[in-house]
Write a structure and sequence with these properties.
Elements: H1 3-57, H2 79-86, H3 103-111, H4 117-121, H5 125-134, H6 147-155, H7 159-168
Length: about 170
């Protein structure tokens, strides 16, 4: 008999059996993990369905009331025009679109309840300075003189005018 062929054949059969047994053993652990993920997925699907039904029951966003004040938001947000003007996606009521406002300053305004362009547009420059002072000395160097007007242009959807003006501004001044 030719041992050169028989030994690799026996080793191959043993490896195949061991591989099969290890695969079966590990698949039992995966089944429990798959079931856990399936339960999470089903819960997320139910939550999504619930959110969609609540959203369908609400009035359209162009007539929804804001929490900052009792006035109605009658100007719809045109994301396509904002994107076309700025060359990037703009989120509604993102205060960082205002020249001179970054993520940290935006957080200061949010902490004071000013979370929308309309809310910022209704602020006086003095109120903006108070918000900056609440953040400490590092924020007092900022000049918010144009911020309410910039926010008003964003709220009104005057993206071309806002962008052209911001090209002239340096650090919000």
């Amino acid at each position: 008999m030719n041992w050169c062929l028989l030994i690799p054949l026996i080793v191959g059969v043993i490896c195949a059996i061991l591989g099969y047994l290890l695969g079966r053993l590990s698949s039992r652990n995966n089944t429990a993990e798959i079931e856990a993920w399936q339960k999470k997925y089903d819960k997320l699907e139910a939550d999504l369905t619930d959110c969609r039904s609540k959203l369908a029951a609400k009035p359209s966003p162009s007539v929804s009331s804001k929490t900052e004040n009792t006035t109605l938001n009658l100007i719809p947000f045109d994301a396509a025009l904002a994107k076309a003007t700025y060359g990037k996606k703009i989120k509604q009521d993102d205060l960082k679109i205002v020249e001179g406002i970054g993520p940290k300053i935006e957080l200061l305004f949010h902490a004071k309840g000013i979370t929308t362009w309309k809310g910022l547009s209704e602020c006086s420059v003095e109120k903006c300075e108070e918000v900056l002072k609440s953040g400490g000395k590092a924020y007092e160097i900022h000049k918010p003189g144009t911020w309410p007007r910039q926010a008003q242009l964003a709220y009104e959807g005057k993206w071309v005018e806002l962008h052209a003006w911001q090209d002239e501004l340096k650090g919000g001044k």
